Amino acid sequence: MEPLTNSAGVNYEGSSRVFMSHEEMVQYLKNLKVKIENCHREEREYFDRKFEETHALIRSSYAHLQQQHDHLRQRVENLERDQQN
Fold first, then answer.
1. Where are the domains of the chain?
2. Is 5 exposed, middle or buried (0-12, 13-18, 19+ CB in 10 A)?
3. Could you give the count of Cα atoms lying within 13 Å of 50 in the half-sphere of its Cβ?
4. Under a CB-based contact definition with an 8 Å cutoff, are residues 34 and 41 in contact?
């Protein structure tokens, strides 16, 4: 976050002599709100994207495991059938 300054560029942090006008404080708070909203939106997009990537990996892994399971089940059935003959 940028340092808190007035329209003349005077830094307020660490100074007890200078105060913001009401209009400057309102503008500062509006800018802060926009920054917070942007940060929240970016984080939401990031986590939504990560969720979709993880979900795709889970689906892919499940399909692979299901295929292996089916293959092994078929092999067991074939072995059992061969033992009976």
1. 21-77
2. middle
3. 6
4. no
Q: Distance between alpha carbon 48 and the CA centroid of its chain, in Å?
A: 6
- Cβ–Cβ under 8 Å, residues 4 and 13: yes
User: Would you say 3 and 11 are in contact if contact means Cβ atoms under 8 Å apart?
Assistant: yes
Give pLDDT tens digits for 23-65: 999 999 999 999 999 999 999 999 999 999 999 999 999 999 9
| Cα distance between residue 69 and residue 74, in whole Å | 9
- Rounded-to-5 percentages of helix, strand, coil across the chain: 75, 0, 25
**Cα 5 from Cα 1, distance rounded (Å):** 12
